[in-house]
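re: ur question from earlier - yeah i can do the single chain one, its not a big deal. heres the input i used so u can compare w yours
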Amino acid sequence: MPQLLIELFSEEIPARMQSAAARDLARMAKERLDAAGLAFDSLKSFAGPRRLTLVVEGLPAAQEARTEERKGPRVGSPDAAIEGFLRSTSLAREALVERDGLYFARIDKPGRPTPEIVADMLGEILRGFPWPKSMRWGRGTFRWVRPLKRIIALFDGQVVPFEIEGVASGKVTEGHRFMGGNAGAFEVSDFADYAGSLRAHHVVLEAETRKAIIQDRARALCAAEGLELVEDEGLLDEVSGLAEWPVPVLGTMDPSFLDLPPEVIRTSMRTHQKYFAVRDPKTGGLAPRFLLVANIEAIDGGGALAAGNARVLSARLNDARFFWDEDKKNGGFGRWLEKLQGVTFHAKLGTMFERTQRLAALARELAPLVGCTPEQAEKAAEAAKLAKADLTSGMVGEFPELQGVMGGYYARAFGLDAEVADAVRDHYKPLGPGDSVPTAPVTVAVALADKLDTLMGFFAIDEKPTGSKDPYALRRAALGVIRIILANKVRMRLIEGPHLQTMVSGVADAIARAKATSLQPGSNPVTPSLSKTFGADAVANAVVDAVNPEKIADELLGAARQLPAFFADRLKVLLRDQGARHDLVDAVFALGDDDLVRIVARVEALDGFLKTDDGANLLAGYRRAVNILKAEAKKNPGESLAGMVDLRLATVDEERALIAAIHQATQALGPRLEAEDFVGAMAALAALRGPVDAFFDKVLVNDSDPAIRLNRLRLLTQVKDAAAQVADFSLIAG
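and the output i got, formated as tokens:
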């Protein structure tokens, strides 16, 4: 079967965009081939520094003929409507088919040659490609990530005619920019020839192969010197997108720079220069070496490259040393804290200094809940006050990635308590799925305060995430809270208790101050016109209400009540990644609990229960009971099912057995749920499975005697209520 080969050759594609571009190319091609009815055996895409490649194996030479059915107007419609439909289909009236009171047209479409379809597909893909950023060049209007230079479009070895903005398709590509050989451009005939020729011209097509080459050779170079490569998957992904022919080179740096914090050295290497750090296994610390990935095989083995890059790194680290030394001359955090008064956290939420005061109060309230002693609670408050101070330091100004980390180093340099320093250092954690979770009680208190205050503040001013947009990283903050609480088994209600009041009142004060500032004389030109319209007293009273912290705090409780649902969504994401069912999270959250440790334990027990025959069958029985209750409620909307079940009205053995089983189950459920023995609670609920099955098998609920019927409906209500103590079974799918 024929093969399709497409290459889109351009100037350098940013490394961060390459993997997504390869996926988008494969997706867009598959969608269009599927829509055209072109089956294929395999489809694969590749991305590199200067090219996107697609190869599709097993395509047919042409599209099969198809018959398309198109729905038309209703039978009996005006002639004008019918004639218009006929013109659109190029059919005669006799060709229309009547069905279900409508006219249908059957249109036979001959198959098109695959190259024609591919040419159309290429135009659609190129014009609609979802680059995060793109550009125009020359005088054309076509946009691509960087200027597009060449297009290969081969079907069964033949060029597919296509042109866009003066770039015509062909069978020619280029190898490495510097090592591609004297021939420069070269022709290819199919994918095997293409991949092999690229390799011969010093281009490694597959990103995973480039990564493997970098990693293997880098490890070997380090091992030969008795050193270890500091693994960095993110950096590996990036540098593999920067070099078509990756060549790791080991360089040497001035050992005197090792007196800088290792995070500073690694950040300077990674962020500014794309170097890997190297570790001395004997000491466990950084070695005075670095590893760069060149895009060329140097004649001298990379010696000149290493020396030149060492000079660049030295310049960077000299800057870092200057900031490190200057920052330490402060002797304390006082000057930086003063500067925070001029740093706006958010226009509606006050300054960063005001925020640290909120964090201190909240951390003090949270401290006992996470296992802090009274002394540690004060340390948590102190750490929270200092947590953001390093934002105004010279080092963080140069290396924003080190906020928090540098605060920890400065806290130690200024002689502060070790627990305080650690809390300042780690209060941003966890920053992502792969980041560690703090476990020290003081740090946990400050980290939770930081994230909860962020969530409360932005929910209060209605800056919640929408769709894929989350400019204030609130989803990450919520996931961080969840991970901290679960990892440390922190037993706390998210929106209950003194910490809620502290959180709400702190944010309310910030909002009130921000509003008061905006309403100061001269800052609000609308106020005079309002005074004329409504009267000065009315406007003055409105202003007082607007800046009343107590009134704002009452309003913010509504925003706080939205947080559990937001946490539920994040918890579902976390548990889904761990293999749990998201509907079970909904079923448990519906009970109104927001103790995350308890929720997860209940979800795990419920998941295990539903995987058993008893659980699956009881769920089916529950649904049957609920459906009967819903149907009866529609027939008799005013009927009350509240009340006790009357044993004297139970006329069938299976009915009496279910009454007894429900009594036993409810007697067992309460103590077990109170003790958080959720596995035991599920076992108590499982005892209902047999009696429920027997009841539905032998008992007619809708008895002719109204009293018996009502009694049985109340019995089903008790089944529903018993299950509801464990979870909202109506939200469980499957």
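Residues 522-543 have pLDDT under 50 and may be disordered. not sure if urs matches, ping me
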